[in-house]
Amino acid sequence: MTDQVVAQGQPKSINLLKVLGPAHVWALGVGIVLVGEFMGWNYAVGKGGAYGALIACWVIGLLYTCVAMIDSEITSTVAAAGGQYAQAKHTVGPLMAFNVGLYLVLAYTMLEAADIQVAGQLVQIGALDMLASAPVNWEPYTILCLAILAWLNYRGVFMTLTVNFVITAAAFASIVLLFFAVKPWSPGEILQHQELLTGLPYGWLGVIAALHFGIWFYLGIEGTCQAAEEVRSPGRALPLGTMSGMITLLIAAALTWYVAVGVLPWEYVGWDLELAPLYDAAKVVSLPLQILLFVGTIFSAIASANGCINDASRAWFSMGRDRYLPAWFGAVHPRYRTPFRAIIFLIPIAAIFALQIPLAQIITFSILSGLLGYTFMPINMYKFRKKWPLGSIRRGYVHPFHPLPAVVLLTLCITTYFAVYLGYGRQLLAMMAFYIVVSLWFAFHRYKYVRRGDQFTMAWPRPRGY
Amino acid sequence: MWEVFEVLAWAISALLVGWMVWDAMRVGQAHSENELLSSREGVDDLFGDSNRKRS
Question: In chain A, which residue's Cα lies nearest the Cα of B18?
Fold first, then answer.
């Protein structure tokens, strides 16, 4: 129920609604990511061949397992909208928090733009493939998708994430059904791994380059943290939803790779203009499967965009609430209890990117911002355990083998930067330059508006050494 | 037929976005900024202990 605080002489405070459970957290995390199994990951095949993409799937899977473990531990204690932004505020400081907040907003808004672009283009493909109609424009359906999802988000988080749960579960089921439909117990009948799988066409450098798009298999699972302030029991629900989501994605990624490269040649799967490899794999098998995967692909794109609107708006809202951005964005709707101004503000930004920028470029912007966020996590974890060692505060989850996951995560992030540099060096440098410029703006202009005394909101003991 | 769908898609989109903007403006007029900006960060009950005690 609502958590209202009424102080004497103060207006009744309007907070976000605490109505979510672990299933919603799972739906948020997996919903954002699952589209990456239906499209995007296949560009890793273009960089490193089928085996290169499989290695990327495992290596990046390890990266995200570290992300999920670290996030689960810290978020089970820093339960605040804004997720990693709020964590950074508590463990590192304002400048890092500002940057992490922007990474989150950009990563999710760009991902949202990619999702709605794909949803629109799928309508175009479906009309052409299944209804044999004349070419249709994809733009109206892209904008329609954005408008409906933004409206849903505006009206309340419970319905938004309940819808996400249903369509994400349906999309995941379509991958599992496709896996069984290609009869993995009977190799050679439909699956042609022996003929189609070759070695590493571009050697180990190709494998490293494949890491860039391998991220697409899991990008966004860390978004579960954004629901922290709207979950009934965040200390338990967030680790449970995040870790079960990560397991779901590891299964989905393995099934996806196995089916796609067993049915289609790697040159086709990794082709720059190949949009939906699982859909195309189903097309080769049968018409009912083609329809099933069409629905699964479009559901996954919608679920992802829906989750991204939720997460980007929470991060933007949190930054407004703390005066890192104009306070106007920190408003909560008195009836729907959603960050309504943040939701509306981000609509045109997503629409412009979806309509104007090619998919691979938008994906790269999203990946780069995500990657910058992951690089912060090892620092975050190190500082968190140093300032508040085990036993000093109650945790909902304690991740094992510290500091190994943090070290592995940092190493994999550095390797993936190199992978991104190989294919998109200019975008990487432009993105870095952008964050340096906005950091200067924050440090020399915006910081004076920040309420410094209100930054630390968790009821924790004084950190060790202070 | 697809032309009709396209027009419908644009119209529904405009309607939904227009409604959100209208509602946001209406809320802004009906409530003070202090009230709308009154939310506070974090949660009091991290592990849902109060729910368990109640039941």
Answer: A147
| Whether B2 and A341 lie within 8 Å, measured CB to CB | no
Q: Are B38 and A16 in contact (CB under 8 A)?
A: no
Beta-bridge mates of residue A393: A390
Strand, helix or coil at A446?
helix
Other Cβ atoms within 10 Å of A403 Cβ, number: 14
A11 to B35: CB separation less than 8 angstroms, yes or no: yes
Strand partners, A20: A231
Q: For B9, which of A11, A16, A140 is closest by C-beta distance?
A: A140
Tokens of residue A180, six digits: 């069984």
Residues A88 and A337 sit within 8 Å (Cβ to Cβ): no
What is the fold, at CATH topology level, of the domain defined by A22-450?
A: Amino acid/polyamine transporter I (1.20.1740)
Non-local (6+) Cβ contacts of A356 within 8 A are none
- pLDDT, one tens digit per residue, over A374-414 is 999 999 999 999 999 998 988 888 999 999 999 999 999 99
Q: Measured in Å, how far apart are chain B's first and last C-alpha atoms?
A: 57
Q: Which of B46, B49, B50 has the most A C-beta neighbours within 10 Å, making it the best mutation to test the interface with A?
A: B46
ipTM, interface predicted TM-score of the complex: 0.89
> Cα separations (Å) of A205 from A209, A360, A419?
6, 20, 9
Is some CB atom of chain B closer than 8 A to the CB atom of A79? yes
- Dihedral Cα A82, A344, A98, A325, nearest 10 deg: -120
Q: A13 and A330 in contact (C-beta within 8 Å)?
A: no
The reply to whether A254 touches chain B by the CB within 8 Å rule is: no
Residues in chain B within 8 Å Cβ distance of A398: none
How far is C-alpha A254 from the chain's CA centre?
Answer: 18
- The pLDDT score that the predictor gives to residue A4 is 38
For helices A43-75 and A404-444, the axis angle rounded to 10 degrees is 90
Q: Do A331 and B37 touch (CB under 8 A)?
A: yes
Q: What is the DSSP letter of A23?
A: H
Find the CB nearest A341 among B14, B24, B32: B24
Q: What is the pLDDT of residues A216-274, one digit of tens each?
A: 899 889 999 999 899 988 888 988 999 999 999 999 999 999 999 999 999 999 888 78
Specify whether the CB–CB gap between A36 and A60 falls below 8 A: no
Residue with tokens 């993105």: A431
Radius of gyration of chain A from its Cα atoms, rounded to whole angstroms: 22
Q: How many CB pairs under 8 A join A and B?
A: 131
Q: What is the spatial distance between Cα A413 and Cα A104, in angstroms, rounded to a whole number?
A: 16
